[in-house]
Amino acid sequence: MAWRLRLAPEKTNINFFKAQWLTFGGSALLMVLSIVAWAVMGLNYGIDFKGGTTLRTESAVSIDTGAYRSALEGLGLGDVAISEVFDPAFGPDQHVASIRLSAEEGDQVTEAQLASVRAALVAMEPTLKVISVETVGPKVSGELVTSSLLAVAVTSLGILAYIWMRFEWQFAVGGVVALLHDVIITVGIFAVFQLKFDLTIVAALLTTLGYSINDTVVVFDRLRENLIKYKTMPLRDVMNLSVNETLGRTLATAMTTLLAVGSMLVFGGDVIRGFSFAIFAGIILGTYSSVYVAKNLVLFIGLDRSEKPKGGAKGDHEFANIDA
Amino acid sequence: MLHTPLWKRVLVWAAVVLGLYLAMPNLFYSRVETHNDAASEIEKSGGGATPEQEAALAAWPSLLPSSLVNLGLDLRGGAHLLAEVQLADVYKQRMDSLWPEARDALKAVRDQTGGIKRAQAPNGVLKIAISNPEGMQAALEALQPLASPVVSLTGAGSSNYEISGAGTEITIVLSEAEKAATDTRTMQQSLEIIRRRVDAAGTREPSIQRQGADRILIEVPGIGSAEELKAIIGTTAKLTFNTVVGTTQDAEANPGPGNIVVKDAEREGLYYILDEAPVVSGDNLVDSQPSFDQNGQPAVSFRFDTTGARKFGEYTGAHIGEPFAIMLDNTVISAPTIQSAITGGSGIITGSFTIEESTNLAVLLRAGALPAGMKFLEEKTVGPELGQDSIDAGRAAAVIGLIAVGVFMVASYGLFGVFANIALLINLGLIFGILSLIGGTLTLPGIAGLVLTIGTAVDANVLVYERIREELRQAKSAARAIEQGYERAMSAIVDANVTAMITALVLFYFGSGPVRGFAVTLAIGIVTSVFTALYVTRLLIEIWYNRAQPKTLVV
């Protein structure tokens, strides 16, 4: 037998319901806390959602935020937020900062104001270069909020409908609640740490929706198979058996994805770090929730097993005819 | 013995070879790019090629595919603008130009209506006050001929103006059908004009698209900043020929009703008083070219269409010896005296132009004026340095992610892991091949999508291999275990990829720009990864199995 790396022993017999009040309750609590954090602390919205202008500057010497602040004083700007940006890939003479501006009144920072900002920055530090500028008007940002919420809703419904079609409705509900669990806690993390929340984060959340259902589907798939195989075994035991049987692949698929996204998180540059982080967090949460959240819900709702066809290898559902 | 029918094997390998063949030019990105640029330049100039162009053309054999993956603005650097076309501007212009016609029409029934004057009204509405309410019926009848049927497919049968009267006030509004027809026309014109102007500025592969009812998305790679792009698009180049009433030194002078004060382009402090209604406008131009006047100074020659030629001929014939003004964007660029009737419909604009200015002006005149103003809702500038940094970081992340996943797969599944890794590399090649084929754009989130695909593509293999292990534990023969492993893992793999595809489609539909690029690579990656993870690895395993004939199988 050749050596193989195994994330889980070949045969496990873990009772995943043993600490269910701790795990499931913990998940529920985290979801509530996330929503509270979201409501109380709010999200650190990027200009995509808030409107405004961001500049990215690069200079050969380090400039502290105070210097930026005094350089931009008296230009008739509203809120100014300055943050230094760090990345392992930056050279020693590469100092990057991100400046967020909003107009004092009216909607957009005018071209003249922007020109004076550029001039003031270069006057402060001659090596400074403005390497990107982005302006989003209030009209567009309002629409983006609506369409983002709509996108999350449509994706969830689409997945709900598909899982329903392939499995029983209880599975669909369990799967989608597990997904919402992943998304809500990820948003909670963004609220607690006040990480910048922009359009790419929404894209990352949607991606999480699509991928964290995968592990859940693998478990459900096995559950369906085992429900037919072990007709008299209590539901709870069939579930435990199914999760134990698929544990190895659940961990392995999560690991490959985490390796790739982790590489993006560390080496992919700061521009996309928030995006990578959201996917990374979403996949860890998704793996956890497919083991601890989705099936628990199915157990709570209960499955009607009496209508199962007797002795047939075929599934119980008109679309569920691909045997696995 | 494992066996896949020959036709299936041929099909799978043919798809792989074709995909990789199409992806190949991307390995020689800059060389193919200069080749493509040279080819399009030569085509534009109409055949003649400079030696440099010939050399660039020869750098990449014409027989090989030359489609590349486009790099998005966030990777290449450039500017992005989202403009909202102020459609209501056109309604106002329509009403302004309708007023003189309405006034003339009402002159015929002056004895019944009494005095007429234009009253205050919102945009797109013309209100006329008459002093004698008894004359309303006659006034409405006189105005009726101004309305004509709407020229459009959907609005057929309805009239362009709705004319009504109450008390002493006549109201003329654009009908809904006419507004819709006008909006369509305005958007088409704006798109066309922006396209011509951006093209004239000579940047590489600009993208100009209509978005929604009244928006235009303009993306121009390689341009310095959004302000620069706005300057190219924003110059309206509205050309008119007006009657000169007089001159003045005072910018604030009262020009009298129907007249305007306009400054001279060169002489500081010189202002013209012009009749506001132009004799002919740039809309009647059919052509304009840079040329030279009789003194050898750069000038712009132009030609009118028949309507313009007739109006211009009549006017110049009646006003010999008088000056008239050529006005561009609210400045008088020259005010020559009419020497004789100009009936041929062509003329020349002189002023103190440089050759470059006269060329630009000719281009702007030819493109025409933007029919309506634009408001910029979104602006983005990405410097080329930042784009390059992003490409480097994305490449590093992809390579390191690939190595990490590859090592993990070999450590977990041995030789079968190697097969999965070969399939993974083919998969990446296929994604590039398809992106090049459909002219897709790679953005920074798109690179992230690619890296994510590296992680998820092997998931299908993990599911299959784990299933094979299970089948082996049940003491099935190796060949049978492999077959069943692929067959039985299929359901979970299909489900997983369908849900991921739902996400990609939603992202494509709701997203824009970089996010859309992410959705595209994700969607392509889903299709190619199912293909490589299921078909390609299976063929690889088959080849190995049939050749090695292993007694026992260790996955």
What this model shows, in words?
- The complex is a heterodimer of chains A (324) and B (555).
- The radius of gyration of chain A is 25 Å and the shape is elongated.
- By secondary structure, chain A is an alpha+beta fold.
- The two termini of chain A are 27 Å apart.
- A four-stranded antiparallel sheet of chain A has the order 3-4-2-5. A two-stranded parallel sheet of chain A has the order 1-6.
- Chain A folds into two domains: 20-43 and 140-301, Multidrug efflux transporter AcrB transmembrane fold; 52-136, 2-Layer Sandwich (Alpha-Beta Plaits), CATH 3.30.70.260.
- Chain A has helices at residues 20-41, 47-50, 65-72, 111-124, 138-166, 169-192, 199-229, 235-267, 273-292, 294-301; strands at 44-45, 52-59, 77-85, 95-103, 129-136, 196-197.
- Chain B has three domains: 6-26 and 383-548, Multidrug efflux transporter AcrB transmembrane domain (Multidrug efflux transporter AcrB transmembrane fold); 88-178, Gyrase A, domain 2 (2-Layer Sandwich); 239-375, Gyrase A, domain 2.
- In chain B, 53% of the residues lie in helices and 19% in strands.
- Chain B contains 15 helices and 19 strands.
- In chain B, the strands form five sheets. Chain B has a five-stranded mixed β-barrel. In chain B, strands 7-8-2-18 form a four-stranded antiparallel sheet. Chain B has a four-stranded antiparallel sheet with strand order 3-4-6-5.
- In chain B, a hairpin with a 3-residue loop joins β7 (207-211) and β8.
- In chain B, α1 (6-23) packs antiparallel against α12.
- The relative contact order of chain B is 0.11.
- The chains are: A alpha+beta (324), B alpha+beta (555).
- Chains A and B meet through α4, β5, α5, α7 and α8 of A and α9, β18, α12, α13 and α14 of B.
- β5 of chain A pairs antiparallel with β18 (374-382) of chain B.
- Chain A: Forms a complex with SecD. Part of the essential Sec protein translocation apparatus which comprises SecA, SecYEG and auxiliary proteins SecDF-YajC and YidC.
- Chain A: The chain crosses the membrane at residues 21-41, 144-164, 171-193, 199-220, 246-269, 275-301.
- Chain A: Part of the Sec protein translocase complex. Interacts with the SecYEG preprotein conducting channel. SecDF uses the proton motive force (PMF) to complete protein translocation after the ATP-dependent function of SecA.
- Chain A: One of its GO terms (cellular component) is plasma membrane.
